[in-house]
Amino acid sequence: MGPVHVIGGGLAGCEAAWQLARRGLPVLLHEMRPARSTEAHKTGQLAELVCSNSFRSDDVRHNAVGLLHEEMRRLGSLIMATADAHKLPAGGALAVDRDGFAAAVERAIVGHPLITVRREPVDLLPPPSWGQCIVATGPLTSAALAGSIAALTGESQLAFFDAIAPIVHRESIDMDTAWFQSRYDKAGPGGTGADYINCPLSREHYDAFIDALLAAEKADFKDWERSTPYFEGCLPIEVMAERGRETLAFGPMKPVGLTDPRTGRRPYAVVQLRQDNALGTLFNMVGFQTKLRHAEQVRVFRMIPGLQEAQFARLGGIHRNTFINSPRLLDRRLRLRAAPHLRFAGQITGVEGYVESAAIGWLAGWLTAVEALGSNAPPPPRETAHGALLAHITGDADAETFQPMNVNFGLFPPIETGIRGRDRKAAMADRALQALERWRKEVVPA
How far apart are alpha carbons 171 and 310 in whole angstroms? Predict the structure, then answer.
């Protein structure tokens, strides 16, 4: 058996390579640095942390990323074990010594007898003659390889920037104020004619919202992002508002075709939210991509009637990023439908965050090993953090509006009603770990 090729030596690529090797499969890990660097990387080390040194919350029972930490520990994750070994004081978060962390991951990878690291760029997607391959090249995928991906999948299936609108947890929307309706009650494919949640604004609400939006503090682009273009079809809402106070009322906040059932009248403006996952637990703020700072987004968007207590699964942003439309392109085992010898892993699949990237790397490595060893063992169940992430990027997310996402409890199957807040999160975390343990017992041979 020839080696499994892993392209990309970041967190996802290193995790995938490690999971393959620990199951007895030879690995050839391709990393273009230091021969070719990126605008964000500073070294040629494997698993370099290019932004924060934080892996975020380590709260297992009340935070989805903390739950993901625990699952990764139980699944033998190299990235998580190394993070734990190099942690720094950070309250309830898991922060690491970035240099010590990267050096330790590199030592483990280079020192494994079944892993060979080749320092060279891969500019074309590997052909089937290479055998099983995992593409884990991250948000800064080289232009040449991105072009190869686009040529195989179609230009429209590969994004080079994020134009992200906030996503709200459905249960936090005040439905005493908001209501379900599509414009003119029109039912689209699979719809009912009441497919959007509508939050009404009076003229006074609208004016106050515009004033706050124009005054709010914006986030700066990083130096290497400054050439990121704005596209007319997805301008930040604050940029639209700067073009004129009524621009939003005639754009993403237009109220035409909508009637507030409580007043029987059309509001002055409306913020619409569209279902964003198959479970119906997450709703996307339509047309609300933004570069406001995160704290400002929370403050300003909670001025919208119906969203005064909104809890956000994801806040908005616009920045350079390369990712594929995974719900459309990947099957449930992370294989590219157009070329099943290729799996994708890490941020290029549309997950956000160090831990999420490494978790998808774990899944890609494990799924590849299972296939190579002739097993058809199922992936982790959807009740787990790993299973919820996998389900989201391989079909649960809406392919038409797909954008990168951190792990959050809105991706998990709902739990019994009547449990809310921290108790609900704890119940979902307990359910996840129980499901993980049952699954581990079933797939021990794999």
Answer: 9
226: confidence class by pLDDT, cuts 50, 70, 90: low
The topology under which CATH files domain 167-315 is Elongation Factor Tu (Ef-tu); domain 3 (2.40.30)
Q: What is the pLDDT of residues 348-406, one digit of tens each?
A: 999 988 999 999 999 999 999 999 999 989 999 999 999 999 999 999 999 988 888 89
Q: Residue 127 burial by CB count (10 A; 0-12/13-18/19+): exposed, middle or buried?
A: exposed
- How many Å apart are CA 323 and CA 351, to the nearest integer? 9
Distance, in Å, from the CA atom of 239 to the CA atom of 412, rounded to the nearest integer, reads 34
Sign of CA dihedral 351, 104, 13, 360: negative
pTM: 0.76
Judged by phi (left if over 0) then psi (alpha if -120 to 50, else beta), residue 407 lies in beta
> CB–CB of 213/300 below 8 Å?
yes
Tell me which amino acid residue 23 is.
Answer: R
Give the separation between CA 119 and CA 217, rounded to whole angstroms.
42
Ordered by start, the domain boundaries in the chain are 4-164+320-442, 167-315
**Residue holding tokens 């709260």?**
59
Indicate if the alpha-carbon torsion angle 409, 415, 419, 423 is positive or negative.
negative
Place of tokens 């570069």: 291
Lookup: tokens for 14: 């290193």
pLDDT in tens, 36-75: 877 667 788 999 987 777 899 999 999 999 999 999 999 9
pLDDT score at 187: 65
CATH class of 4-164+320-442: alpha beta
